[in-house]
Amino acid sequence: MDVAIQKKTWTRTRILLLATAVVVVVVVIVSRMASAGTAKLNVDPERLTISAVSRGEFQEFVPVDGAVMPIKTIYLDAPEGGTVQRILVEDGATLTAGQPIIQLTNTDLQLEMVNRETAVFDLMNNLHNTRNLLQQNRIQQLNQLADIDYQLREAKRLYELNRTLYDQKVISQQEFAQTQNNYRYQQRRQQLTRQSLRQDSLSMGQQIGQMQQSVGRMQSNLALMRRKLDDLTIKAPAAGRITSLNAEIGELKSRGQRIGELDMLTGLKVRATLDQYYISRIFAGQKAEVTLNDKRYELRVTKIFPQVTRGLQVDLEFSGVTPPDIRRGQSLPVRLALSDPTQAVRVPRGGFNQKTGGNWIFKVSEDGTKAYRTDIRLGRQNPEYYEVLAGLKPGDRVVTSSYEGYETMGELLLKANTD
């Protein structure tokens, strides 16, 4: 009996054909990759920027433009409203503390001052008159008390005399009782008069004290009013230079209106605006430097403004000597340090990094006839250098210009154009 034999799907012939096809594909891919890695291009060296790799000081920093400002500015506002009567200084003048700047006039304040002075004078006159009346009343009460004391002594004398006579049966009981009652009446009268005198004295003292307090308050108000009148003469609160003076004769200035600025002459500072990207890397005391006329001047961050609108604003002050010829409003190129300086292998910045991402670079051969791809690893960077972590050493020469059109090349043949 015949047995059906099942046909195999993967025969030896098929497996060999499939293996051959895979090998051919792999060979094609490898050859293409090899041809791409070894692709060469003739380039005129004058079209390239060739830079040397070096070892030296490396520091992260951010370049910013700073504006020179006075170390402190006092804003001058009108403490009281009024009409400009006189302008006593010119814009840009150097002032001493307390020197008058502008004289204002305000008839309402002057009239109020006159009314308050009149009220104070009236109150003081009333106090004087009241004190005189109370004093006269007290003198009358004292005279009355003196008369009562005299009558009491007479009543006592008669009482004691009549008591002796009554004991001796010389006078009647009725006569003795009269002198006795009169003596007791004078005693009670003296007590009431003294009590009334004490109460009147306390009342007089309280009344005079209240009037004196009223006079004191009125005088304090009058002193405040005088200061308000003095405020019509706007004076320099400290020594400095007046700037942005904004006033004209006859102009009406309202209370609190800005009339100028006073720049302190104790020093200068630099205000810079940074990208908010650096907000977490800026702190008070951070170092910076500016170069003027080939001289370096150190600065430090003294203030970081909390509000971030069009960028992060910081104030920097000079740590040592201030440049001699800088002026208010002048722009200065500032290098704000983001790290301490260290020694590192570095390569100058260039357009190459846009195409390579910092992963490779064209390294020039020792004879200078070609440049070949070399894998590298970059670290930190600043506006001048990249930090090289691997792939290059000091003394190497590399192409740092743009690699536009060269990104698929494995080697550049550096040949000058003879045309």
TrEMBL record:
The keyword Protein transport does not apply. Keywords: Coiled coil. It holds the Pfam family RND-MFP_C. It comes from the Bacteria. Coiled coil: none annotated. InterPro entries: MdtA-like_C (IPR058627), UPF0194_transport (IPR050465). Residues 343-402 form the Multidrug resistance protein MdtA-like C-terminal permuted SH3 domain. It is found in: Cell envelope. PANTHER family: BLL5650 PROTEIN (PTHR32347:SF23), EFFLUX SYSTEM COMPONENT YKNX-RELATED (PTHR32347). This is HlyD family efflux transporter periplasmic adaptor subunit. It comes from Hymenobacter cellulosivorans.
